[in-house]
Amino acid sequence: MPIIAYIVSLGCAKNLVDTEVMCGALVANGCLLAENENDANVMLINTCSFILDARKEAQETIEAALKWKRRARKSRRMVVVAGCLVQRNPKETKERFPDVDLFIGLDDVPNAAKLIMAAFDKPDTTQPLPQGGLPTYLYDHTAPRLTVTPEAFAYIKIAEGCDHRCAFCAIPTFRGRQRSRQPESVVEECKQLLAQGVKEINFIAQDSSRYGTDHANGDSLAKLLQKCDELEGDFWIRVLYTHPLYVTDELFQTLAHSRHVVPYLDMPSQHVATSVLHGMRRGGTGPQTQELLRHIRKDFPELTLRTTVLVGFPGETEQDFQELLDFITEFQFDRLGAFAFGGNERRARSAGNCGKTQAAHSGNAARHLAKTQQHVDRERNTRPSRATGIRRQLACEKRGGRTGRGRCHPCLRQKQKIGQTAFHDRPHHKCRRL
Which residues contact 412 (CB under 8 A, 6 or more apart)? Predict the structure, then answer.
């Protein structure tokens, strides 16, 4: 009986790339993929374990998969759980879900197809749990990857793991240390995706700005982008997830003036109050963060600035929150996301930040910030220079619950759409028919 797998991918785009590698391995080994769970005999769930809500979603998805498994009367069904939840808590996950047939850790991603096929062929054999310790696997362009995003865009994971020790984040404890891909491998994967018709390539990592710092030859994100910018074709590259401590003027210059690189800086600042940043173990101070942002705005005005902030962190006072609110109102980010702290408070306290937050309710604080940014957006969008530059607020259709919907720029053909928002979010060359 052939294996017909139904795939569920939870969490971020970095996790999605792992899912695509496992899908490619399955297809390369003769397995089939199903669009409907009722047509499948294997359900593969790639889980996220970043925050409590993600763990709850993963657990609910596994429970639903086990119900799907029990509904089968005549044919055999198998449930496979992979990803961060398994890597973070393998024994706990196994104890909570003893009816799961196979658990796949992060180092098992390249061997997922063989493990699934072996477990399917020998249903009575007890499958071992993933090995403990930090993972070391890093995919490259030779991995048989099957992209599942809409055909116009795709992700490339340029590095894996993280060396930061932010108090609100446990990712380094189960994703491992930072390990960057070789630039030649990234360039080669860009070529592969362009040959498939991809028009927007998104570079992702836990911290993209630290790309290459683990190499001995001076590799950097700026140098990688410069190499990729030499490729021919109508496409662009967007960089996501940088860190204020590791961005450089060379990177800003590359983002602002490259042919294929979007002049768009995605840099989560998290906060601007020094006491909160110290409690978060983010490094740097509030004044340093603000000075960096003002430097970017003044010396590289071509760049669209996107940031995210975390409010309600243990120890944040009303004064700290007001300082953040005042800076957001004054600075006027082009894009901003606000999140309420909801992680492990004991872990956050270990940063040396005692006491509970005084900033009322973090959820209300996040909503307050969102309203402030909406007001900023209205003001900025009424300025003539921006109004004349924006044809559409959204210019591509990234369908599905994961990415939402948008509209296509009128200069593009109906069947070949490309991501485009305000003019500052895309490269400087004019739109071409594709």
Answer: 418, 431, 433, 434
Beta-bridged to residue 338, according to DSSP, are 309
How many CB atoms within 10 Å of residue 330?
9
**Residue 305: its H or E element:** strand 304-311
Q: What angle do CA 223, 229, 231 make, to 5 degrees?
A: 125
DSSP class per residue in 122-189: -TTSPPPPPP-S-------TTS-----S-TTEEEEE-EE------TT--HHHHH-S-EEPPHHHHHHH
Q: In the numeric block, which tokens belong to residue 207?
A: 């911290």
298: its two tokens: 């003044």
Q: Scanning the structure block, which residue is given the tokens 């940043």?
A: 277
Dihedral Cα 248, 252, 258, 264, nearest 10 deg: 130
The dihedral built from the CA positions of residue 49, 25, 14 and 87, taken in this order, carries a sign that is: positive
Please report, in tens digits, the pLDDT of each residue of the chain (434 residues total): 799 999 999 999 999 999 999 999 999 999 999 999 999 999 999 999 988 889 999 999 999 999 999 998 778 999 999 999 999 989 999 999 999 999 999 999 999 999 999 999 987 777 778 877 799 999 999 999 999 999 999 999 999 999 999 999 989 999 999 999 999 999 999 999 999 999 999 999 999 999 999 999 999 999 999 999 999 999 999 999 999 999 999 999 999 999 999 999 999 999 999 999 999 999 999 999 999 999 999 999 999 999 999 888 899 998 998 899 889 989 988 988 888 887 553 444 444 444 444 555 567 777 777 777 666 555 443 322 322 232 223 233 333 433 333 333 333 233 333 333 444 555 443 332 22
Both tokens of residue 360? 């009322």
Please enumerate in sequence order all residues whose Cβ is within 8 A of that of 388, keeping only pairs 6 or more positions apart, or say none: none
- Order of all β-strands in the sheet with 42-47: 32-33, 4-9, 42-47, 78-83, 102-104
CB 169 within 8 A of CB 43: no
**Inter-residue contact 394 to 421 (CB < 8 Å):** yes
Residue positions counted in the chain: 434
Joined tokens for residue 280: 């978060």
Write down the residue that tokens 């921006």 correspond to: 386
Give the C-alpha separation, 42 to 64, whole Å: 13
